[in-house]
UniProtKB/TrEMBL annotation:
Cofactor requirements of the protein: FAD
Residues that, per the record, bind substrate: K96, R284, R285
The UniProt record lists the keyword Nucleus: no
Superkingdom, natural source: Bacteria
Enzyme class per UniProt: oxidoreductase
Species name: Geodermatophilus poikilotrophus
Domain Proline dehydrogenase: 42-293
GO biological process: L-proline catabolic process to L-glutamate
Molecular functions per Gene Ontology: nucleotide binding; proline dehydrogenase activity
Reaction it catalyzes: L-proline + a quinone = (S)-1-pyrroline-5-carboxylate + a quinol + H(+)
Protein name: proline dehydrogenase
Residues the entry annotates as binding FAD: M131, Q159, K183, G184, A185, K197, T222, H223
Keyword list, A-Z: FAD, Flavoprotein, Nucleotide-binding, Oxidoreductase, Proline metabolism
Length: 303
């Protein structure tokens, strides 16, 4: 129920206006979003670096409706890549193709993606591609194939919840793809996605094993202790040491586990969202964990 209300809230422009214009709400959002400006995200990355943790910078905003919005995102990502290099941070950038105009003009999206990949490679910053809702998956996989052929360090997020993901990965196997395995953050119909926790976990475990066998440098984007434990076991079976795979966390979530993994010699990277379009991101995180909603509401009423 809470989940449905939050999914509705995520899509409501009116509520979005009211919440994002509220200065107290903006401050409360800081628990999960580094800030609205690039320099705030870079400062967050530097603070993580001092704890031995790498970063992934994500400019919030998705589903742009015109190409000027996409152009602005390209400029921000290029600035982010240059600033990461200038500050010598162990950080990457992660992009959403819908933010680059995928649903407005595919050719323009391809040109935008190519430009970001080339500019980021020129300053030595790897690029990751987020996975969005199921309607965008086939095209995102196709564009990743081209991106990874030109820039092999490019990483693609894939969703364990989606029924099609094993087939998508088999089709990419010849590339030995770099993948970030996640459960999937979008509400999807039964025909496209597993719905139950146990089924999603089962597919996540299957895909974890697959990635150790057929992928390169696998990354696991999860806060789920059971799946973290499975990744350790799969790594041991594949003869991989703690530095040969990576755990990725969302900013502000499971800081205890992040530190525990670093202390035991594992590679950890935190995904740092920044930018003014923080509202849909925040509501998705609250839908995943209603305790976050309580945290946010308490901050709003100053308790
Ligand atoms: C680095 C990273 C990148 C991601 N990229 C994508 C992407 O490209 N596309 C996509 O669809 N999804 C993406 N996701 C989101 C992902 O799909 C899940 O929605 C999200 O990670 C929650 O699933 P979980 O595996 O952490 O397990 P859950 O079962 O949701 O959580 C397990 C435990 O982790 C803790 N936890 C989980 N979520 C929260 C939270 N919001 N607040 C506080 N504690 C929490 C709780 O202790 C919980 O019991 C990404 C996630 C990460 C970590």
């Amino acid at each position: 129920m809470v989940n449905r209300v939050l999914m509705w809230a995520a899509a409501s422009p009116r509520l979005q206006r009211q919440v994002t214009q509220n200065p107290v709400a903006r401050r409360a959002a800081h628990r999960f979003v580094a800030g609205e400006r690039l320099d705030e995200a870079l400062d967050a990355a530097a603070a993580l670096a001092s704890r031995g943790i790498g970063s992934i910078l994500d400019l919030l905003g998705e589903g742009v409706t015109d190409l000027s919005g996409a152009g602005a995102a390209v400029a921000e990502y290029e600035a982010a890549a240059k600033a990461i290099a200038a500050r010598g941070l162990d950080a990457r950038i992660s992009i959403k193709l819908s933010q680059l105009g995928q649903t407005v003009d595919r050719d323009a999206c391809v040109a935008n993606l190519t430009e970001i990949l080339d500019q980021a490679a020129a300053v030595g910053v790897p690029v990751e591609i987020d996975m969005e809702d199921s309607s965008l998956v086939p095209d995102t996989v196709a564009l990743f194939r081209d991106a990874a052929t030109a820039h092999p360090q490019t990483r693609l997020a894939v969703q364990a919840a989606l029924r099609r993901t094993p087939v998508d990965l088999e089709a990419l196997a010849s590339l030995r793809p770099r993948v970030r395995l996640v459960k999937g953050a979008y509400a999807e119909p039964l025909e496209h996605a597993h719905q139950g926790k146990a089924e999603i976990r089962a597919q996540y475990r299957y895909l974890t094993d697959w990635l150790f066998e057929h992928g390169s440098d696998p990354a696991f984007g999860t806060h789920d202790d059971e799946l973290v434990a499975h990744a350790h076991q799969a790594a041991a079976r594949a003869g991989k040491g703690p530095q040969e795979y990576e755990f990725q966390f969302l900013y502000g979530i499971r800081r205890d586990l992040q530190q525990e993994l670093v202390d035991s010699g594992h590679r950890v990277r935190v995904y740092i969202p920044f930018g003014s379009a923080w509202y849909p991101y925040l509501t998705r995180r609250m839908a995943e964990r209603p305790a976050n909603l309580l945290f946010f509401l308490r901050a709003l009423v100053g308790r």
